[in-house]
Amino acid sequence: MAVSRVDGRDKVTGQARYAAEHPAAHPADPLLYGVVVSGAVTKGRIASIDAASALAVPGVVDVITHENRPRLRSFDLFYKDMTAPGGSPFRPLYDDKIHSSGQPVALVVADTFEAARHGASLVHIAYEVEEHQTSLLQNMEHSHKPSRLKAGYTPPPEPKGFADEMWDKAVVRIEGEYYSGVEHHNPLEMFASTVVRGDDGHLTIYDKTQSSQNSRWYVSHVFGLSKDKVTVRNPYVGGAFGSGLRPQYQLALAVMAALKLERSVRVVLTRQQMFSFGHRPETIQRVRLGARPDGTLTSIIHEALAETSRNEDYVEVVVNWSGQLYACEHIRLGYKLVALDRFSPMDMRAPGAAHGVHALEVAMDELSYELKMDPLALRLKNYADIDPTDGLPYSTKELRACYEQGAQRFGWRQRPLEARAMREGHELIGWGMATGMWDAMQMFARASAVLHANGNLVVSSAATDIGTGTYTAMCIIAADAMGMPLERVRFQLGDSTLPVAPVEGGSSHVATVGSAVQGVCDKLKKSLFKLARKMPDSPFAKVRIEDVDFVAGGLRLRAQPVHIVPLQAILASDGAERLEEKYMMLPNMLKQQKYLRATHSAVFVEVRVDEAFGTVRVTRVVSAIAAGRIINAKAARSQIVGGVVWGIGQALHEETQSDDRLGRFMNHNLGEYHVSVNADIHDIDVLFVEEDDRIVSRLGAKGVGEIGQVGVAAAVCNAIYHATGRRVRSTPMTPDKVMAP
Predict the structure, then answer these.
(1) β-pairing verdict for 560-566 and 427-439
(2) Which residues in 552-706 belong to E strands, given as ranges?
(3) Cis bond before residue 561 (omega within 30° of 0)
(4) What confidence category does residue 152 fall into, taking pLDDT thresholds of 50, 70 and 90?
(5) Residues 6 or more apart whose Cβ sits within 8 Å of residue 391
(6) Which residues are marked as active site?
(7) What segments bear the compositional bias annotation Basic and acidic residues (predicted)?
(8) Contact 513/211 with Cβ under 8 angstroms?
(9) DSSP reduced 3-state for 298
(10) Given pLDDT bands bounded at 50, 70 and 90, which one contains residue 151?
């Protein structure tokens, strides 16, 4: 099914309101505006704050600092949101300590945004500066193993076999070091929170977040408020992909101001301040592969060092993929962290896999040249039919079909084996490929469904739509389950008072919330069938539910498909205005843990490289995806295209430059932080191979949010080598690196 977004009209006509666009509840209580004052040093403490000049600005109401803020809870536990890693979370305006560059040190509140911004420029802060360390490469000797793991993190498995010994003995072997620089999220909607204070003190908060219930959890715990005093809403989110998993500091600051001043308050971060919190962590990896002359892998060794903050052990699954993708008897994986004076990193689309699979897939390409073997043939030679590390079968795995269909669509058979074999004019042409892999996850969720007397269905869950199409997917699932026209179905999300839903992340929302939606619709159908059996002269009185179909907004006997009883008539026969059911979806963990559950992809890329300038154009991409049953082909294709675009950005453009003398990210704007634009993107062809996974979810669906990016940067890197004969082992692969001898 290919369906246009049900929320599309609201978005293109401006009817959709985002976090910074909601008005105050009453004209008599107009919004106040808060502007954050960012710290000017990387590490130390605040010696003094002079806010007199700011307070003298007409319209400025208050300057809130750690010295005059409202009461906050003191224990780390209260600051831990539902996705927090181990350690001590950052506490905005809690004390005088400076932990990282750009940390918020004050909030200027005024009756206009302009007055608040002017006042923020006049706050003078003196610091006692301490020595900082922000360089991963200069501090690698201070690494440590993660000691307090975040929920959902799986540490590398124990070594299998004798990987080091087998690598030493390998007839063919390669070794490489792969570096990935810092990337920052840059969603178009900047982080914002609008806190609307009711007459009774109730706070209705419109927040840019990937979970309204996670933000409510955080606010309630930090400020000691009962959850019935706080409602968080996020009906529309203008992009996130990890940046909204955790509540960002503007939320706490907006609530502080609302509580202290007993007014409604809005706080919006600037684009520069968007670079002052989490990011994809800087990572350095070492991969060693050993093989027999026929290409059979005999050893896989993959070790990674990644940054974290001083306060938290932010961890990712970086190296584990190398123990799952290819059959091998000898595997050793390692993962360590280096604590730096930076804000804690955070999940960014395909966290861990975007880096870890990249290093492995570039190493596999290097090995193919050592073997004088086609890169695709090498991967097929070592195809894993079971999980190599623990022997589990896959719930479903159609990666072989991805290889075959993707290669055919791309024309891979015509690829010359040697590098520098294709040229057109002043450009060298190269073809590269890579494998992608991502977890297929399912979590806990609840949903409710109400069938109204007019025949309309409203399904609800506190899910989130960050632009990925959740509204539409859930409407499709509900309409299909109930046998109703899509236009009769409405899905409610983005409100913390709705039935429980997990944080939107990890490509798990369709498998999780979608299963809850189907479950509640099945429950509703059973209730409707019971009512139908009680109707006067009911044709359903003596049949079982297996003997009927829900179609065209009604109920019919399979044996008499022509006669359909409308659902409205069934409700009316009982005198009911509405029929409601609720459902709790629990994953079948006993069943699921017997399988390795994952999505897969095969990415084929063509690049053209201007050898004189080192500029790279990605002119053609074929991405073949195995992600279970596809609920909405139109939205799913868009997700994969978006992932490919981001992968091209990872490969060629995106990097936040740090001046470690200052401990500060320097290109903190969209003029200097390079992202892929229209001129960088050419032909992207997406194909979905058939797959239906009833282990992962009752829908047969997995998820497509992350898998579209995994492997893209590696395929670009491998294509660059095929074009030029030059191997670039760090991202982004900028012209200076491509030109390097």
Answers:
(1) unpaired
(2) 554-557, 560-566, 578-585, 598-610, 615-626, 658-659, 664-665, 683-688
(3) no
(4) low
(5) none
(6) 706
(7) 1-12
(8) no
(9) strand
(10) low
